[in-house]
Amino acid sequence: MNFKAMIVASFVVLGTTACAQTAGQTAPTPGADGNKYVPYEQRTGNESVVYFTRNLSPEGLIAAYEKVSANIKGRVGVKLHTGEKNGPNIIPAEWVKALVEKDLPGASIVETNTYYTGDRHTTELHRQTLKVNGWTFCPVDIIDEEDTTTLPVVGGKWFDKMAVGSHLPDYNSLLVLTHFKGHTQGGFGGSNKNIGIGCADGRIGKAWIHTTPGQPNQWDIAKEEFMERITESTKSVVDHFGKQIAYVNVMRNMSVSCDCEGIAAEPVVTPNVGILSSTDILAVDQACIDLVYAMTEAEHHDLVERIESRHGLRQLSYMKELGMGNDRYVLIDLDNGGRRITPAEAVKGLKPFVK
């Protein structure tokens, strides 16, 4: 079944949402300008540190992770998008295996079942898909396999709590390992999307994010409101883990489609870039966006069109409004002695994507 057919086939009857508004109140007004890129010089506030390597390999992934690993301890979950069957663009399993074996022995990959009907809609189907895609070298905890729990959303305007997989609180630390790419509804999928949708359970939390109850369109929530709902879901998880969370974004095989679309994803036309890491979720997603915008028009046209047409940049401005991090950062080049570089320097001389 292709992705479009999944959307049609997978309507879920919804119950009560966890919206912050009460009956009789108007819905909050979303912020605007999710389709407008804000240049670096127009941003204000402190700078965080983001590490960057062009080394797209297990060694590059390990180097990027080790720069942000200081507070990752205890029982560790690795939040990863493991993909639909035979998905061509997911982070290679052998890269993650090398990282786990070297730096994260005893860690588990953590995932949730999907909201749409497909290869990961039920735990049984999901486990079959995990085997097909090579996620067999460490435990994979489908955290909503048994039940859900809720985490508070502090300062949200859409939610006061978010439903996540019941196993998530069993972990002391979380590594958010993200394949950065486009997204059909969100414009782009970075660390924010990986947590916000990926930790929300497949039946309740994801429904709160995607769907207004009582109407037939499973995907009716879009643009700024959708970005804000994702981000509030993310905030519940980020607040839960505190300092014991880190983020690694892999800018490789960046289709405008999410890995949810598997083999039906749009062809990749954006060049591969590298791997970024930070302990600041806003900084690492913002840096990835800045690198995309620093590319040539030919290199970034399709991805920028996807981001702006979905108003995906609202993910970044809302993270800043919620106090989740800084949109200014020091970009550290791990390939050249740790010197500070600009996004333009990071993407200079990119090679066209070759499948």
Folded structure, characterized:
- The protein has 11 helices and 13 strands.
- It has 355 residues and is α/β, with parallel strands linked by helices.
- The strands form 3 sheets. Strands 4-3-2-7-10-11-1-12-13 form a 9-stranded mixed beta sheet, with helices on both faces.
- Helix 2 crosses helix 3 and helix 7 crosses helix 10.
- The longest helix has 19 residues, at 223-241.
Briefly summarize what is shown.
This protein has 355 residues and is of the alpha/beta class. The protein is built from 11 helices and 13 strands.
Give the helix/strand layout.
Layout: H1 3-9, E1 47-53, H2 58-66, E2 76-80, H3 93-103, E3 108-111, H4 123-132, E4 140-142, E5 148-152, E6 161-165, E7 173-179, E8 181-183, E9 187-189, H5 191-196, H6 205-210, H7 223-241, E10 245-251, E11 274-278, H8 281-294, H9 297-309, H10 314-321, E12 328-333, E13 339-341, H11 343-346
Parallel strand pairs: 1-12, 2-3, 2-7, 3-4, 7-10
Antiparallel strand pairs: 1-11, 5-6, 8-9, 10-11, 12-13
Helix pairs in contact: 2-3, 7-10
